[in-house]
Amino acid sequence: MRVYEAIVKGLEDVGVRAAFGGAGENAAGLMLALKHSQRIRPVITRHEQAASFMACGYAMYTDRLGFCFATAGPGAFNLFSGLAVAMSDSYPVLAVSGYASRQWRGWGSLNETSGVNRTPDSQAMFAATTKKSFLLEDAADTCDVLEEAVNLAFEGRPGPVHIHVPEDLTHHGVEVTGFRRIRLDVAPVLPDPARVEEIASVLAEAIARRKKVVALVGFGAVRSGAGPEIKRLIERFRIPLLTTLDGKGIVSEGHPLAVGVFADSGHSSAWKAFREAQIVLCIGNSLNQHATFNYREDLFKDKLLIHVNISETEFHKAYRPDYALLSDARPAVAALVEALEGMVGEVPEAEGEGRDYEARHITHLTGKIHPGQLAQTIGRMLPPGAVLLADAGAHLAWLGYYVELEEGQNFRKAGSFGPMAGHVNGAIGVKVAHPERTVVVGCGDGCYSLSGFELMTAVEHDIPVIWVIFDDEEFKLIKLFQLVTYGESALVEFRNPDFAAYAHACGADGHRVETLEEFEDAFRAALASGRPTVIDARITRWAVPHYSPSPDGVIAGLVETVEARFRDH
Predict the structure, then answer these.
(1) Angle subtended by helix axes 3-13 and 28-35, to nearest 10
(2) What is the average per-residue pLDDT within 360-370?
């Protein structure tokens, strides 16, 4: 068995069912091995960056490994953005890339990245964007290296790993001796029972004294599948639920105890609940920039912070918790609920604030579609079990604010690394992993233009994703930042093609809409067609998403901004 054949067999052993990659000489053997696999679906992309994003999408809501590959040199370097996403957003992803023949090391051969004699150093670069990068030195080590890499991807906080395969190990006559099945054996991260009892005692005392407790839940809980446990926690102990943008939908957002998104572009109901809370129970939340109002120093002033996270490093960032529980979210919450059951009796019903943002009236005076109304319409029409992805840009603020998810639906924004086009392409991986679920991408025209040519990949492989383009022919968030910071804007406007005509040229369905009624008809058709579809929605430029730099509200945030401006001058 040859090296790439052994890698493909090993990937089959650990449950990989899709491979996303770019063509190239150094990947030629891998492409042939995938051709003959009966269990892995190969998807050759137009650009390797898209392949890395698709691998992230494939791993996003599964317990399976996302897999991407590329040839040596520039092809391999195109994988870095997706691997950075996997690193920041906790996706188990394996990238395999070619590597120039080692006997020519330092000679400047085609695609050489040894780091010798002015060649780029791919080992250093992949090491910087993964949990670990391996250089396969001997074909006989293939199974050992692959097994270590795959287990490391899932171990603790999941993340990306990488393997270099030198060209000389793919030559005729080089065989993998001692091939064996690959074992995936990762110990779960379970909570310390003593710490669970300690934290449960703190919470039980707070509940008994009628102190205000809120739960702030992030994507770590979603990825852990902790929805039922979170729901039991808040219902049994009457704890209001706040989520980050990435935690949306952990429990139905129409639930009486779900009070909204806590973020700089979140809901006033969530801000109010957080402001009044005395104890904050964070679950699967990294407390990153937008969820903390730019790491606001007084965010947890006069509050007790309890933090549940799978990664020890999360307890040593901007906010040090009063109580930390190192654990995967699902077993941690289950253990806390069990411990609290023995400590807490009946709890009076809590008062919650209804939100109903999908139905809230939006005043709109211009002729083009208001992005808030567009988001409301998407939310109302989103099918059960659907996945809604928001790429980087103003549209994610509109979608996060106005779309209310039901149980079984998911929402994901571009994560901490935050690449534009990450979800434009990553959606294809999500759909391959979940063919039974509707996958919708809300993206800006800037995001789509960066990487929309992967529409051909979706058409070629019959992957029916729906892309809704918020089209206003400008980089909205950059423009707003320029205006607020500098008092003027520059280089943020551009011209778009006819995206619907482009979709038709690719063999997909395309719709250009200028009213909400036209959008509803187009979205309804897209949901029914089972075909890749692009909807070009012409939105007004005269709308600004909800935002405040302060959890005390928009007015307080404006006052703080003005005060800071005077201090700076």
Answers:
(1) 50
(2) 80
